[in-house]
Write a structure and sequence with these properties.
The protein has 146 residues and is of the alpha/beta class. The protein has helices at residues 19-35, 45-49, 53-61, 74-81, 92-98, 112-132, and strands spanning 8-12, 40-42, 64-68, 86-91. The chain has one domain: Rossmann fold, CATH 3.40.50. It has six helices and four strands. Strands 2-1-3-4 form a four-stranded parallel sheet, with helices on both faces.
Length: 146
């Protein structure tokens, strides 16, 4: 068994100028910076589109979760076109349909409802991340308290 921790690539939408794209990116930040920093790696969709070798290697090496802001599903398509495997496709609109009270507004900065929607989406994705890259329970550092 390898000592190298398995990670999950998080590839959010780059829907610049669209609130659902911004929700996608915020959810990606929540996952990679707060909820699962040890088991995720954020990959900018723009880097895949431009053929960035490091981004391509990351999605080829690790299973990916694509978070898309619209029905075009660009993040999922680019992961596949870059040689990666999409372990889960998440559509912001599907999550919003279950949380209609969290209407995202704003582009550069989301309103509170949009930030809450991003967090809900991120929390829903953590189950899949834990399945793909189980947290290291051997550290004994107290970890998170739930």
């Amino acid at each position: 068994m390898s000592d190298i921790r398995r990670k999950v690539a998080i590839v959010p939408c780059s829907g610049i100028g669209k609130p659902y794209g911004t929700v996608s990116r915020e959810a990606g930040y929540d996952l990679c910076e707060d909820l699962r920093p040890d088991t995720t790696e954020l990959v900018a969709l723009s880097r895949l589109v431009m053929g960035d070798e490091t981004a391509r290697q990351t999605v080829a090496k690790f299973p990916a979760i694509a978070i898309d802001g619209c029905k075009l599903m660009c993040a999922a398509k680019m992961v596949r076109q870059s040689g990666g495997t999409v372990a889960q496709e998440v559509a912001v609109l599907d999550v919003y349909r279950h949380h209609k009270d969290l209407k995202p507004e704003g582009i550069a900065e989301l309103n509170d409802a949009g930030l809450q929607l991003a967090r809900v989406l991120a929390e829903e994705v953590t189950e899949k991340i834990d399945e793909l890259a189980p947290p290291d329970t051997r550290r004994g550092e107290g970890g998170s308290h739930g």
